[in-house]
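@channel anyone free to eyeball this complex?
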Amino acid sequence: MQPLRKLAAALACTAALSFTAAHGADLKLGALYPFSGGLALLGDESFRGVQLAVDERNAAGGVNGSKIVLVKADAVDANQAVGEARRLTSVENVTAVFGSYASGVSAAATQVTELAGVPYFELGAVADTITGRGMKYVFRSNSTARNFAERSIEAVVKVVAPQLKADPKALKIAIIFEDGSYGTLVSGFQKEEAKRLGLNVVESQSYSAKSVDLSSLVLRLKGAGADIVLQTSYQNDTTLFIKQAANAGFKPKAVIGAGGGYSLTDTAKQLGAAMDGAYDVDFPQDTMAENGAPGLRAFTAAYQKQFGTPPRSGHSLVNYVGAKAFLDVLSAAKSTDKDKIREAVLAYKKASGTSAAGWGFDFAENGQNKLATTNLMQWQKGKLETVYPEGVATAKPIAARAD
Amino acid sequence: MSIFLQLLVNGLLLGGAYAIISISLTLIFGVVRVVNFAHGELLMVGLYATWMITSHTGMHPYATVVPVALLLFIIGAAMQRFVIQPLLSAEPHIQIFATVGVSTALLNLALMVFGADVRSAQASFGTDAFQIGPVSIVTGQLATFLTAILVALGVYVFLQHTFTGRGFRALAQNRAAAALMGVNVNKAYILVFALGTSLLGLASGLLAVQYPVFPTVGQYFVLTAFVVVVLGGLGSLPGAVVGSLFIGLIDSIAGFYVGSDLKEVVYFVIFLVILTVRPTGLFGLGRGSE
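replying in thread with the prediction:
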């Protein structure tokens, strides 16, 4: 019985294959994300964005008449990313790969796809190095760590200083960050940018994210008379810093976080009123205003319909927007050839404020989208409101932190 | 000057938090002679228990101290009876592997049950600060510090002046001789281990006011507690207290004058120097006591 069944299965497979071949082959695209393990929650949230973009495109007739088929690949870490990228490129023979939420996963997977000559569309990882290694077929739609840093410095110059009616150069800035790769990366760009603009950085201090006490750091900043604190942190150290600053009577005129702990509703819940007025730089969120981000409400509605909840974070939105752009690119390329795709990516131009994330598209030679940005948000009465840039703002920034 | 005063106060208060954890660690090590690598995870269990009680009943974390300490007493007794006791005569590294196993199991259990989210107990009293002259003091930290002093005194009196306490000390000095003198070794070990872990329950109630809880939270405190215990002398009660305050002070002062990135370097260097000069720690019993 057994061999016969196998034969039947094989025949069925062959039949299925020849059937699809006859109807203009499906367009196979990989989706490489951490679907299990510690990064799974936001990895899956990111994938949902891709899925929505693909469903939308398939409903509208696919890419040049072929239906898009997503091949999921689970990459929890760099090792698995290499294995899964190999499977996608050599077994599944995908035309291109979407990924990957985590920078470590992306850095490893792109090395495989580049060698295999398969275009890699990065939609969410922020480490600048991913598009800084001279790879020809790695393209990224989303903003990077440098954007986070530049936006936070821009916030000092264009939002906080005018509020205080002060010259930005007269403000004393303190930069504090957790000493892992995330904090070091963002703060490095912050220092660079502050130096370029001639701003006065009075303190730059790292600390272990596992610290149970930051009171001496707070005293140092207080002693230095810091007006503005830029913190790059996870959740625990964000809470610790803000609590201990309040306890020590340290009231900087503005605190600006860079995503991480500052974006989480949990942090705000824990800190209550102490979090009110704190700024946060992060990816566009689904709560921003529609006029600078056309298509945003439609995205939120489609998400709600498909998954039964509102988006769990901004990750699905930026992945959706990026995936849509790259599907446009694949249509324009009219080919699955890697060089044709690269040409189409570089030729793809969209003005800022034309996508659901408010981003435009203009890819540099290194594959990085130059028009992807981050937004400035502020915690106001327990809600994270987008306050800058004005096109997508849902509220006006409030001066001086509430005590 | 006022900044230095504030640093001293901050350091001592932080030391208070380390002290309770270190006392419980050193008590278990001193008597049962087991290095308990699951100590941090037991603290984490205590913090989750505190969080669950406070979020369901609205009780203040301080009020949960009794039930949580009781819970950890039971867990500690069970761990001694079913994990450590069967391995008492085995090689020390086998016992270490066993406690590491318990640690990993608890950590992953917490990940499964609660996920990696950070949760925190809401409390009104304990998070605010008051001023004495130029120095600001957080009420919760002060409460932790004072409790730590009371715990240290209590454990000291218990070990020195009660019949059971004397039995424990006899066990610490020589297990075989104590057994010959009529100490029920297994029962005494279970009691010591459970008392040690119940102190973690006490610490949980106090710390929950200041710190949130997540599966790896125990490791934030316990690595330092291990340093404290070795620094003070393994098994030494005054050593644990003095070591905690010492580490707290270095943390605070070095964090200000040297920088928050290098404060750990400072205290590990001091730690190495002390161990080179006095390998048995500040209050260790001297060479040959092990």
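from a first look: The mean pLDDT of chain B is 90.
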